[in-house]
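Format notes (please read before filing issues)

Several people have asked whether sequences and structure tokens are stored in separate files. They are not. Every record keeps both together, in the order shown below: the sequence lines, then the token lines. Line labels are part of the format and must not be stripped during preprocessing.
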Amino acid sequence: MRRVVFNQKGGVGKSSITANLAAISASRGIPTLLVDLDPQANSSQYLLGEAYDDAPAGITEFFRDCLGFRLLADDPSAYVTYTDFEDLAVIHSGPELTELEPKLAAKHKIYKLRDTLLRLESQFDAIYIDTPPAFNFFTLSALIAAEGCLIPFDCDDFSRRALYRLLENVEETRGDHNPDLHVEGIVINQFMSRAKLPARLVEELCNEGLPVLATRLSSSVKMRESHERAMPLVHMAPRHKLTEQFVALFDELGDDI
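Then the structure lines:
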């Protein structure tokens, strides 16, 4: 199972959703890999903590190898770093990744990630891909490599306007590059149940027939604490309301696409 979490708008909780779903997957005994394609490396630092600074080769080195800067590693697990959480590994990102984008696009390396993740499926039953807040080479690589796509939505009118273009991008990628890709659902994040605007926006999306998932993720300071401690919610606060919502989301999705 290869699942990408994608939104072109920043600040919608993309990295938090990716990392926490991956952590829940691993906590169920599923060998799980998170691939971080965002140069900000939020999900990498979240799951690796202090070990991030000393992590070996990651996604930057992988794409450098694709450009022929040195021989491509025969074993793609050379780019994988295991976290302190059982069954959870990361291919970490970093700011240097940004510099490679024009070179990779010019060399038509858009299928390299897909080919490598297919090889890694012998080691990992679940692969989650975090993406940058833009539709660029790395995001397109992720959509080509994935089977399912989750779209975080933070109940904002700007997010709603961007959502339609985002869905068009996914559909275009499916038609041009990856017929197996499909939108698994829109994840309502930072939801305030007592506020009128979020409820109205969600209702309107549902009435339009968009694939809005039933589980809602609340806004909580617990998420910030989780980031600070570099500990996913399922490990830091397993009985917290937000953790239970993440577990419900994971169960709603299922571990198979």
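For reference, the curators noted about this record: The two ends are 6 Å apart (CA to CA). The domain at 2-253 is CATH 3.40.50.300 (Rossmann fold).
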